[in-house]
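Please discuss these two lines.
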Amino acid sequence: MKRIAVLGSTGSIGRNTLNIIRAFPDKFSACALSVNDNTAELIHQIKEFLPAQVCVNDPAKAAELQRTVAPGVKVLCGPQGLEHICKSKDVDMAVLAISGSAALGPLLAAIDNKKQIATANKEALVMAGEIIRKRAAKSGARILPIDSEQSAIWQCLEGQEISKLRRIYLTASGGPFLGFTPGRMKKITLKQALSHPRWKMGRKITVDSATLMNKGLEVLEAMALFGVGADKIKVVIHPESIIHSMVEFVDGVVMAQLSITDMRIPIQYALSYPRRLASDLPGLDLIKLGSLNFSEPDTRGFPCLKLALQAARKSGTYPCVLNAANEVAVEEFLKERIDFISIPKVVERVLTRHKGISDPGIEDILASADWARRISLEIAGKLRKAD
């Protein structure tokens, strides 16, 4: 029985993880759950899964929850609560289903305590990829990706020599605005940006997919997960989202992972690894597929991808600053304070002003992120006034 802590249990990834735990009660248990502030859904999850620990980010809601749950459930609060769960001896695996840079602290705590870590959070790896790789190697912790693209790369590389890798192909659907002209891009609404053609995800990652920043962050994530440089990763547009990523080796052989678009597939593989468990999800009908299409990404129309690739090549604190600036810009767009095409403007202007540190420590990373958030808000405010 693998004891699993699901951090972000009411989000899309968290709920899908609980679906898998529910389907295999003899193999997995949800020993800990966390939410931002959705305590109403959390209460239902507590009644079903009977976790020993739960964490709520909002202190007032955490206090209220403590008065309503059974005495045997320990209620924790905030970032310290998440880290406490990841240090717990009663946790075998931590599933990081929380979005944004808030995952960095719990991730490091899980690494230092030699946990298995299944992560859908790319921001922490973007911020501090090299530091995370070194700490995981030192502690022996294993980081297992549950993003569909990173899981595909991991599965293609399993049992292969990384030195024989020629190139990773990261596939992207292209999002809802594939083929849009610059004139149409200026008129994009929040509702349109939140309507992804293939995946049902959280608001922030859905906007990142629409700007193609998500794919840029995935380049940085792959660099951290697999220890490769940006020069070995190529992004290709694949609207059908059937091939989740590909790996090319030095002999010219390309290996690809194909499946239907359902996040339960990569999540289940990470939870059950190194075994594969039977699934009741439908397989691919290769005859009905007809054809699979690929094209180059439009980095002029979607400058966020170009900015991410530039940050990847510069490395140091640039990826961290890119991520922090994007978080602020997307949040401002979600609040409808800036328009869609202002997101890359904020990120670019912050990156231009940044004086990078080539070999940062954690304190440098956190300080750079704080600086980037402050400057991003400043720039977003000016763009809002200009509109």
